[in-house]
Predict the 3D structure of the following.
Amino acid sequence: MTQKFVLATHNAHKLQEMSAILSGLGVEVVSPGELGIAVDVEETGATFAENALLKAKAICAAANLPAIADDSGLCVDALNGGPGVYSARYGGEGLDDRGRYMLLLGSMRGQTTRAAYFACAVACVFPNGDQLTAEGRCDGAIAFAPLGEGGFGYDPVFLLPEKGKTFAQLTAEEKAAVSHRGRALKNFAEKLETYLHQ
Ligand code: ITT
């Protein structure tokens, strides 16, 4: 594929994961920083898919290049699906990743129902207005204490029962093979290939 895509994210960890996964799938990407673009998009959508589309549209318009956005989050059964689309803002502005996952562990204290999943919606918008979308999900459970040093965000408290490890205990490749983002981007790359051969 010779077409270049700009990744519509300001999250350095997401950028790194998306670049690695998409490069492995043969999709050439550039970051907004490399293009000198910084667009702050208000995530007003009610769903991951709506927010992904908002981000992709805004960056596509600013860069005049096809733009790929990811909107993602952690959905916890015992918290009625929260923090969900509010995962990046959980607990308010003052918290960092650790602050957010510690807050989550606190709100899960005494909860025996630990089921949770990560969700990811990917949207790609082309300068001619065409759109491609894809979704991915990874089921797991909320750990009782943080474990592992890898990844970002809620990774230290997201447990994959079948591996007996948190996302933060996996290598980047192991995480990408099963993660919500890895699955969504793989599905997206298949749709992109079909689209580009039309
Ligand atoms: P952009 O909108 O600029 O892409 P963001 O971090 O605000 O960056 P989102 O609105 O999609 O992105 O929020 C996603 C949040 O969900 C992210 O900040 C993490 O807290 C969490 N999250 C998403 N994917 C994750 C992953 O793979 N591992 C751990 N936490 C993740």
Observations:
- The helical segments are 12-24, 48-63, 97-107, 172-178, 180-196.
